[in-house]
Design a protein that fits this description.
282 residues; mainly alpha; 10 helices; single chain; flat
């Protein structure tokens, strides 16, 4: 449970931390869109290189970012195995066959690409939350959605909900770890038995966790009410967000990466003589 990095902020001074949170939020959405344009392994290599550059610029320990992959390791393995076992290709594409189990070369390629895509989809938002505080994300989301407030959409309330959810993720992880340690001290076993016994053993953990979560939510609501919280009416900000020159450079740099991905995907300017750069290449 300590491996959850989403919602945790790593405090340091870097160029990524100093970027405008509105720019980082928009670029994070554009990054997710960019991932779905990648079709070749060289494109995924470019994506991982982009993440590596972000991590180095942000001065966040690489292991802190990679910890986010440990929570989805089962999902990566599960999707990889399902894609390999249930994909049906042509006869010339068969690599291994035994009774009803058939493994095709195309299945291995597609499964590998899917695993790489999932990893990139997790690493990008992890860098965002590690370099941006929940308060900054809330203000950025509210400022970006302010036109919707003209049609009576509760933009401020939605941003507050997102901020509280992100802030409580590390708290709930720590609370879960404490409950598991307390149950183990009472001779509870969570690592033995089949999957059904392990699921049943989690009941003494889930019930106290739900009770603690509801109690924490009630205390938070009481604290906000005692401080006269009334939504966005009459609220001001101590720090006003302003765009700087570094934000422009960040947008231009990401546009260059996005253009390179599109170049590799759609074979612009006649680069088809390189097999790895074609959509059908590896």
């Amino acid at each position: 449970m300590r491996d959850v990095s989403i919602g945790q902020y790593y405090q340091t001074d870097s160029v990524i931390h100093r970027l405008d949170p509105r720019v980082k939020l928009v670029l994070a959405v554009a990054y997710i869109v960019m991932i779905f344009f990648i079709v070749s392994f060289i494109g995924y290599a470019l994506g991982f290189l982009f993440i590596l550059i972000l991590v180095l610029l942000s001065r966040v320990p690489p292991l802190q970012v990679l910890r986010s992959l440990r929570m989805i390791l089962f999902l990566i393995i599960f999707t990889f195995v399902l894609t390999v076992l249930f994909y049906r290709g042509g006869g010339d594409d068969l690599l291994f066959g035994w009774q009803f189990i058939k493994i095709y070369k195309t299945a291995l390629i597609n499964a590998s690409k899917m695993a790489l895509r999932i990893m990139l989809l997790v690493l990008g938002p992890s860098v965002l939350t590690l370099t941006t505080t929940p308060v900054e994300l809330t203000d950025a989301l509210e400022r970006l959605l302010w036109p919707l407030a003209k049609i009576k959409l509760p933009v401020h309330e939605l941003a507050i909900i997102m901020s509280i959810a992100l802030r409580l993720i590390p708290t709930l992880v720590e609370e879960t770890d404490k409950i598991i340690s307390a149950q183990k001290a009472r001779c509870a076993e969570f690592d033995s038995g089949n999957i059904f016994k392990r699921a049943k053993a989690l009941l003494p953990v889930l019930i106290p966790l739900f009770v603690s979560s509801f109690r924490r939510a009630d205390e938070l609501a009481f604290a906000m009410d005692s401080r006269c919280y009334r939504g966005a009416v009459g609220r001001t900000r101590m720090k006003v967000m302003r765009l700087a020159l570094r934000d422009l450079f960040a947008v231009l740099g990401f546009c260059a990466v996005f253009f390179a991905v599109l170049l590799l995907t759609y074979n612009w300017f006649g680069f088809g003589f390189i097999p790895l750069l074609t959509p059908g290449g590896y």
